[in-house]
Amino acid sequence: MNVFDYFFKETKGLEKDFVLGNKETISFKELYNNSLKIASFLKENYGTNQNIILINQNSVFFITVYLGIIKSGNVCVPLDFSIEQGNFNFIANTTESSIIFCGKRINSKLELNIFRSIIDEDSFEKIVKNNSISDFLIDFDSENLAEIIFTSGSTGKPKGVMISHQNIISNTDSILGYLDLTEDDILLVVLPFYYCYGLSLLHTHLKAGASIVLNNTFMFLGTVFSDLSAYKCTGFSGVPSHFQMMLKKSNIFKSRDFPDLVYVTQAGGKLNNVFIEEFVSLMPNVKFFTMYGQTEATARLSYLPPEMVLRKIGSVGKAITNVVLKLMNEEGEEVKIGETGEIVAKGGNIMLGYYKDPQGTNEILNDGWLSTGDLGIIDSEGYIYIVARKMEIVKIGGKRISLREVEEVVLSVAEVQDCKVETIEDDLLGESLKLVVVIDELLNQKSVEKKILARCRSKLALFKIPRLIEFVASISVSKTGKRIRSTN
């Protein structure tokens, strides 16, 4: 089954709005038909099995195109709208994409001359208005590739996670199994759809016949609180920084009543226990779901039920349905209670592999088991706690960052002799990046710091730029010559 047909099986005729908001709305029925028109346009003009890039902020344009690409039998490659030109070129060349859907604002920021077809909002509107709907295969292989989601790799080069139609169906079913969404639910979406967590929100609410409200201005917290109230949102989903900012940067959230809010979900990294306790104390009637997952697992691997959030605080819970989790030691044996081991996962949601990267795939997939790179312990009741990261990849505000990528940029500054990037605690984001730098003792540190920041701004997305720079005489290394990092 094509996942598009799975999403709309019960909802394609609904007249109610799927997207609510003061800027744009669209019903399930209209979304279904418009997506089919995009799919028909792609099938007739470009065929199938093409990798098609989609880049824009959350919008009806993004959702319609995303669904249309998948329905057409092509592969969607959703990208961060703040992507650097270098990473963008790498992905475009790797995927051999010749077609791109992008907003006008994105078009003005990136060099797009490598594409055969560039389709912006105006062209999109013409397609929806003028195109008819084609016939599509009913007998569709659900193991076909649906999307490639690029994440930071351990070498700094983006890795393309290949997600099949069946991966999405399996993970969506599992999430709906514990969230219990209904047609009455309305979710405020602040997470971008190029991110697997954000996409999972789109998938689950589309399937359940629930509605979503798009908010692309989370930094203006007032708009978030206004949307929660104005649209009577029953749900909110965020990464640690979202919750910390709501609790620490605004008294409105603490003093205002949100009577329609039923549940919140948190993933994308560890939220400090003190913030979980504060949220639950502030809103005891709101269900708080702590969740854990990876892009390589389509989105979700485990969750902690709300009734256990204080009793098992700090835990990521147990495996979702259709997933098996184990903790393995270096000898390949399951660890005992309280012992540390790497979390490995198996299930219908585990990716097909990394795009054009058999070596990387073999390193992380073994007989269907995904090595998460996260170290954890399991208690006597089967609840898992993550204690450390195995790989040099960190999540800041829900976004994965390669520490090596940042280091490579800093080392390109002539005055820098050596450096390392670490994570430190941050009151707002949960974690942030700290840069430790070695330069000649005769150089002016302030001058070098300015050069480093200038280079970072020109080469890195904003969320990858270190918030703190420290100058030291030398970098500590292990016996094997590897940098010793301090991570939370």
TrEMBL record:
Record-linked Pfam families: AMP-binding, AMP-binding_C
Full protein name: AMP-binding protein
Residue span, AMP-dependent synthetase/ligase domain: 16-355
Gene3D superfamilies recorded: 3.30.300.30, N-terminal domain of ligase-like
Domain AMP-binding enzyme C-terminal: 405-482
Family (UniProt): Belongs to the ATP-dependent AMP-binding enzyme family.
Protein origin, superkingdom: Bacteria
